[in-house]
Amino acid sequence: MKKIEKVILGSLVVGTTVSSSIVFIQAEKLGETQYYLADNLNMRKGPGTDYISIGTLKKGTIITPLEYSQDKLWVKVKYNNQYVWMCAKYIKKVENSNETDKKLGDYKTKEKLNLRKGPSTDNIITLTIPKGNTIEVIDFSCDNNWAKVNYNNQTGWVSNTYIEKITSQGDNDVSKYEDHITTSSVNVRTGPSTNYKKIGVLSKDVLVKPIGFDKYGDWVKFNYNGKESWICKSYLKKVSDNNTLYTSENVNLRTSSSVNSTKICTIPKNAKVSILSYNSDKTWAQVKYNDKSGWVIAEYLTSKATQNYKLGTTTTRLNLRDLPNLDGKTLITMPSGASIKIYEEKNGWLKVSYNNIVGYCVAVYVK
After folding, report:
1. Domain range for residue 194?
2. Which helix (H) or strand (E) holds 16?
3. pTM to 2 decimals?
4. What total number of domains does the chain contain?
5. Is residue 6 domain-shared with residue 88, that is, in the same domain?
6. Is 208 found in the same domain as 258?
7. What is the mean pLDDT of each run of 10 residues along the chain (367 residues)?
8. Rounded distance between C-alpha atoms, residue 343 and residue 243, angstroms
9. d(Cα 169, Cα 252) in Å, to the nearest integer?
10. Which of 306, 346, 349, 353 is nearest to 332 (CA)?
11. What span, in angstroms and rounded, lies between the C-alpha atoms of 21 and 355?
């Protein structure tokens, strides 16, 4: 009697195993449903550790199951035009529901944050992003634990735990921000407080085109030397006079916001133009000049109160410093033959502007 019971019980166990395997496979569409690797996994010739490993796939790689082993412990996939097996325990289904979708765009770091080559702590750290800095999220990992971001012209991955979406002050609506000019010399920093690193100095009456504000509205984010930077709003005032600006150089008026577009005319230096709009990153301005409308490069527009200057050229590689002496910190090294704006000369030092960075350099190396 006991032998019969064991046979019946064994049949039930086998039946249950086979039945659950069928349900497991029927619950998804083989060859269509996507999974991602929750860890680095070996690719093997067959469904077991007895089979030879022919390589490793990295954590986060997307796979599409084609077949499962009878015990459901191994999954067969196609990779590089060959069929391989890997452990099914470490694959997770890619969720497509709206609940797991995250919004792309600008985020703020809540703590100092490592930028890595890939979406795991196993990947190399390329740099550390300071707390409070703005990053652009362009993608998320399959498990939504990591974000792919752009920061200071570098792309990498950061943990989602330490970032938060920027929603205050309508940061994405850059068109509503009015131009400002500096009311005195002011430091440019990497973030919205005096705790952040100083990366330059703007002199009085320099035009600033805001692209965002901190959540308190005390600091202005703008493009400085090709990077997103911050300046204290206390040292700024709005440009008035019905959005009227002036050209700081001879500048071409074009049919669209591209140097490859057709030139309408050349607007002379110190000409008055009316601002109609800007492109998304405010590098081009649509203006009206003598009843003609077109686009000009925005960096050649300024307020009427711009300081007088003359042009000069460096005769060798030359350090631009924050003070008129050799103890001053080097802000940037200007190449030989660089065109600079010279504002004043004193005791053998020049106050100059290069690539919108204002500082001091030795006069003898400028002609």
Report:
1. 170-238
2. helix 2-26
3. 0.29
4. 5
5. yes
6. no
7. 43 38 46 77 89 84 84 86 88 58 75 87 87 83 82 86 67 55 86 87 79 81 83 80 72 90 88 82 84 86 64 90 88 88 86 82 91
8. 26
9. 34
10. 353
11. 66
